[in-house]
């Protein structure tokens, strides 16, 4: 079949590249920002738009209600999750595809060169919020299905879809839907493999397949002023300010080189083996090329490839994200906030359990707070997700590697990833099947930053990759139940 069908599929993809760009433009134009309630209707509109695209390729779809969330003490309805099924041939492999349709906030004033919700092509790149994270890849699956249909060939696999619009805001409601509803209903009963395309190549030119993700623990560090009559403290310094206490605590968490200062945080990290070290040595990653692509004057760890990769993938890291309640508007301000909340996160790695890491953080912060002897009130809370790894030698991964070689004519790197996709573990638990991360975008796509883009090459060749992946998975033996 490959000799006859895939060349036709690939030609169709090339011939219809402009149509595929136009559809991505439509998707990017919907500002489905999940973290801002004023865009909640746009999130619903985005899900409904994608539902129509799945229906057009013949999928049976439904929108599943996942309840409400509390925002500013108000109950706000969550956008529905789009669930779809395409094909039910018991002789074919069934792949469950996960993706998300929501995006991070974006304003031109943030530093974008163009309007973030208007897809703009420039220098072989498609700029727009969601172009690579994750609307482009989600559309890639639809385009691959369409290509098979257009050349008159039957899709070689059955497909199931789980597409949400809250991933950038913690995937609220999704775990309960997957584990408490879809699994008992039998949605995963005939699933053979799970595939996610919500990650990126390690660098900018070499394709990869991802077999591991770091977990994440989010922390919310709240300081409440003991004395609420703050006016008298503006000039006299009679009030122990909440902001001062918060800055003190956050400054104690990490040093200037990125080393986490929390006692015991590295104790459970798996020691580096000789075989694992060889993996980092053999990976094709041009550190200087990467540095130039992201416009950085220098990289951490003196630009050492192995150290950069290990600190990105296998060691924990801590990031400070912001302070809620502080004055942030331009101009001179003398506001003294009565309560502030500092937000930070720790990326955790295999062998580290979220509960263990949370206890270490709480103990450390409480110790530092006791030493501070402040009259103010401190409270710390957390929410966490585990790290995830799979076996890159699994037949599913080898099928994806063959598909990658077919499209890019090179051996893909088997890589881990520094980011976190908590639903990966949930899908693994719900289905009991091998989970694969097959990226479409490149490492310099700036997914959560200004000028997010996807290269035209990655978008179009990525569609072909998904089509080839369908074919390669169709040749695998049925996994044992």
Structure, explained:
With 481 residues, this protein is of the alpha+beta class. The protein folds into two domains: 6-213 and 388-474, Zn peptidases (Aminopeptidase), CATH 3.40.630.10; 215-270 and 314-385, Alpha-Beta Plaits (2-Layer Sandwich), CATH 3.30.70.360. It is built from 14 helices and 18 strands. The chain has helices spanning 6-15, 17-28, 40-56, 135-150, 174-185, 233-236, 242-251, 274-282, 287-293, 305-313, 354-372, 395-408, 423-431, 456-474, and strands at residues 60-64, 68-71, 74-77, 81-86, 94-100, 120-122, 125-127, 158-164, 193-196, 208-213, 215-224, 317-324, 339-348, 377-385, 388-389, 413-417, 434-437, 453-455. It has a six-stranded mixed beta sheet, sandwiched between helices. The chain has a four-stranded antiparallel beta sheet with strand order 12-13-11-14. α1 (6-15) runs antiparallel to α14 (456-474). The chain is globular. Mean pLDDT is 92; it is low at 233-238. Belongs to the peptidase M20A family. This is Peptidase M20 dimerisation domain-containing protein. One of its GO terms (molecular function) is metal ion binding.
